[in-house]
Amino acid sequence: SSDEKQDSSWKKCDFETDLCKALHESNLQPGWIRKNGRSGMGPPYSDHNGGDSAYFLSLSSETQSSSATLRTNVFLPTTEHVCQITFHYWISKMSATLIAGFQKHSEDTITNIWQDSGELQDQWKVNTITINSTEKYEV
């Protein structure tokens, strides 16, 4: 984390006040909710640091759909053309799969760049994905 603190382009997203400017309300498909451990809506009951007041996004247990998507704002390429996104996640359903995809604006297809097909884990996990792009893209 020391290199991120020195980089002025590094942005932290923690969902405390909004959807982090990386996600627009219109990008939040039905089923996704912003909650914290005090919401009383089932696990997880805290964030990845153990705090029950910190907010995170969760897929509602009332969702009838078999899938739901979140899309970031458009990322612009940097001079190094590399972006790292670190995220914490929790899988609380049996046979669930969480996928991160990448879509260049010049293409119609989404390329899967990471996935975890976990069983009921009841614990926070962390992952970092690295994206190398010379053009605009979304994750």
UniProtKB/TrEMBL annotation:
GO cellular component: membrane
Domain MAM intervals: 11-139
Protein name: MALR1 protein
